[in-house]
Amino acid sequence: MALENTLIQDKLTETFDTNVFNFQQERDIFSLETSADKITALILFLKNDSDLRFHFLTDLCGVHYPDNESERQFAIVYHLHNWYENKRIRIKVFLNGEKPEIKTISNIFLSSNWMERETYDFYGINFIGHPQLKRILNMDEMVSFPMRKEFPMEDSGRTDKDDRFFGRTTTNC
Description:
- This is NADH-quinone oxidoreductase subunit C.
- This protein is an alpha/beta fold.
- Helix content is 20%, strand content 27%.
- The chain has one domain (20-153): 2-Layer Sandwich (Beta Polymerase, domain 2), CATH 3.30.460.80.
């Protein structure tokens, strides 16, 4: 029996009610949103449910939306995979821009350890309960988070790079 989007949505809304929302099919992946305080329970449910069986964390990454209101300036995006049915799912959680933090899932998926560290390193998102949350690619002495949109891609003297082409705007243009 193929794992259908309607079954996933029905099981999630039955269990989490209005804490899961914005269900949509985007190309070949079923997507939804939840709140930061429900992500651990949701991930555990998706992993342990005998019908859903999303046992593999494909990716975890951060996104910065500086033009959004403060409560939705950062997002954590989780991609899970059910190998039995070859079904993928995307979960997006928006975070407060003033103090972006979310609980770690490294106790559920060990592979998230490095992904969470990388997201912290580049976006400054705190993963509460992470066993070793520190920079993984940048120097420990860095005080900024280079993937945030306010961080310039190159020095302002370069003319061969234009920040507008990378989703950033400059005040001098």
